[in-house]
Amino acid sequence: MATDTRQSDEDHRRFARFRPPQAGEGGTMSLLDHIRELRYRIIVSFIAVVITSSVAFVFYRPLVEIVMHPYQQASLAIKAKNPTASLQVVNTGVVAPFVLNMRVAIVAGLIAACPIWLYQVWAFIVPGLLVNEKKWALRFLGSAIPLFLLGSVLGYWVLPKGIALMLNFTPHGMGITNLLDMNAFLALEIRVILLFGVSFLLPVVLVLLNLIHVLSSAQLKAARKWSIFGFFCLGAFVNPSGDPISMCALAIPLSVMYVIAEWICRSNERKRSTDNMGIDKSEFDIQID
């Protein structure tokens, strides 16, 4: 029996580096343990993205078709207004096809692995939360995944409109051909999709900051006007065209989610203040025989 116990302790120490450090009472950790846990969360997220990217690498052709769909939609819109417009996509360089393949697979893997790396972000914050607040964090983790995907889809939908608007500035009837480098277009698409997706995580981030007592609803209320102004500036920066429709497609949902997050934070603070008063809610329960 003693031999089995020693063997179990040795196995536990051997694989300790592959486990996150355990938090102490109240979720406290030393600085070194925080660094170790951060390293663990990053490694797990990286492995998840590598696995999903490897799977996406196998489906290279259909993924490239998805990548090219916004450009094809923009081309159809341009040629509907100007049938003589000349548009062409090029892949320059010997290694360009391989680089394109890798970048498409990595982006697809990053999006597919979002449940895992979002969970790792949440798990890194959880030790600082009180026990009765973890359920709230878990609920908003469930909201983070669809919000990220919704933002990514919205960015994908906005992109063709921005491309068409920019390419429509080409003078008509002058024999000018628009050559679009495939990797440059992919970089633009990645920026738009990921920025839209990450931007839609705003309410989750605000609520989590409120749960760990970093941000209050009063601070959110005071910064509301400037935040909304910043959302419109962000919408103008992220979108390739900067047209009002595309800009509002990001700014308006972010403004609405900011107000919702502010309301949730205020409700959470009221509940927290009630719990801190030491009121035993069970005393008010009505027993019906």
From TrEMBL:
Single Gene Ontology MF annotation: proton motive force dependent protein transmembrane transporter activity
Presence of the UniProt keyword Transcription in the record: no
Protein name per UniProt: Sec-independent protein translocase protein TatC
The species this protein was found in: Cutibacterium acnes
Oligomeric and partner information: The Tat system comprises two distinct complexes: a TatABC complex, containing multiple copies of TatA, TatB and TatC subunits, and a separate TatA complex, containing only TatA subunits. Substrates initially bind to the TatABC complex, which probably triggers association of the separate TatA complex to form the active translocon.
Family to which the UniProt record says this protein belongs: Belongs to the TatC family.
Taxonomic path: Bacteria, Bacillati, Actinomycetota, Actinomycetes, Propionibacteriales
Localization (cell): Cell membrane; Membrane
Membrane topology designation: Multi-pass membrane protein
InterPro entries in the cross-refs: TatC
GO biological process terms held by the UniProt record: intracellular protein transmembrane transport; protein transport by the Tat complex
GO cellular component: a single term: TAT protein transport complex
UniProt gene name: tatC
